[in-house]
Design brief:
Elements (H helix, E strand, L loop, with lengths): L5 E13 L8 E14 L4 E5 L6 H9 L6 E6 L2 E2 L5 H4 L6 E4 L13 H11 L5 H14 L16 H13 L5 E5 L7 H18 L2 E5 L3 H7 L2 E6 L2 E7 H6 L4 H8 L6 H6 L30 H5 L5 E2 L8 E2 L10 E2 L1
Parallel strand pairs: 3-8, 3-9, 6-7, 7-8
Antiparallel strand pairs: 1-2, 1-4, 4-5, 9-10, 10-12, 11-12, 11-13
Helix pairs in contact: 3-4, 3-5, 4-5
Length: 335
């Protein structure tokens, strides 16, 4: 088996808060990411989906060190980078880069495009002087930006062009892994397709691996090799994209899939929509059982008392994992 280029093991990110106000001694925890594990192989795209607030972006930020993990490990190219300080982390930042959701907020408005894309090259000592400018021009051409725009500022570009600038900046240090945090959610549909096709083309040409975070399940289906579904800080299902969309195992995944629009009105009319009713769970509360229990139509007593772990072999597929007592048999192995 090929060694994973990125391996996340039992990652937890908890944020403390005061329950009774600013000066209250009563403390609580927001469990933004709660025991998340997954691997990404070289050249693979892992899609991460789920509703807002489920911990997708926090997971990505914890991987690159923008958020400090509470527990767990992150292995990058076989080396543990968890808890490294900035100096120790610097050489590893060449291996993993990030493309952010808002293509305007992530770019310095006081810097020209040439300076923004060239900054990583200068920081890591990869190029200087004329060589730096030539490399910036090459990167701009690689992502479909006109080299004549070198001295323009971010506000002079459209949203799609700004995202191309962000991608060029991420590519500057020749990374092996790029974390894409909802890179197309702020763009028009037609521009979304262009950016997705650009990312797929770059992956083929450069052998990149992606962690692709998105709300749009149709977009994830188009680009992802495998898909992980998150709910309240936990991965509840993980499988090949084709298998997950064809036969979702976890009830939450099934409800998500039922909400995906179908362009054919006849087929759409035949499909039944699954509505999750009941109390929406809160990340400041610790659930000993399944967090979906109060909203699930398949709930059993065990679901409320025992936390289901990802079980390998769900849906009779050795590559399909799900965390559900009802849908997964007891004889499959736990991750």
């Amino acid at each position: 088996m090929t060694q994973a280029i990125l391996s996340v093991k039992n990652l937890k990110v908890y944020f403390p808060f005061s329950r009774g106000g600013l000066f209250s001694a009563q403390q609580g925890l927001i469990r933004a990411v709660d025991d998340v594990s997954f691997d990404i192989a070289p050249g693979e795209t892992l899609g991460l989906v789920g509703e807002s607030g489920c911990g997708k972006s926090t997971t990505a930020r914890a991987i690159v060190g923008l958020v400090k993990p509470t527990a767990g490990t992150v292995l990058l190219d076989g080396q543990n980078i968890t808890g490294m300080n900035d100096a120790a982390m610097r050489p590893h930042r060449r291996v993993v880069q990030m493309v952010f959701q808002d293509p305007f907020a992530s770019l310095n408005p006081r810097m020209t495009i040439g300076s923004i894309i060239g900054e990583p090259l200068a920081i890591h000592g990869l190029a200087r002087g004329r060589d730096l400018k030539l490399e910036v021009l090459r990167l701009m051409d690689l992502v479909g930006l006109n080299p004549r725009f070198l001295n323009r500022y971010p506000h002079e570009f459209s949203g799609g062009q700004r995202q191309r600038i962000g991608i060029a900046r991420a590519l500057a240090v020749q990374p092996k892994v790029i974390l894409c945090d909802e890179p197309v959610s702020a763009l028009d549909v037609s521009i979304q397709a262009q950016i997705i096709n650009l990312l797929m083309d770059l992956q083929q040409r450069l052998g990149l691996s992606y962690l692709f975070i998105a709300h749009d399940l149709a977009v994830v289906r188009h680009i992802a090799t495998r898909v992980g579904v998150m709910y309240l800080g936990r991965v509840v299902e993980l499988a090949k994209a084709s298998d997950l969309y064809a036969s979702p195992t976890h009830p939450y995944t099934e409800a998500l899939m039922s909400a995906v629009p179908i362009p054919d009105p006849v087929e759409s009319a035949k499909r039944s929509r699954i509505i999750l009713r009941g109390e929406v769970p809160s990340p400041d509360r610790e659930y000993h059982g399944c967090a979906l229990a109060d909203r699930c139509w398949l709930v059993q007593d065990r679901c409320r008392t025992d936390r289901p772990l990802l079980q390998i072999g769900a849906a009779n597929d050795p590559n399909h994992e799900a965390a559900c007592w009802v849908r997964c048999s007891d004889n499959v192995s736990k991750r």
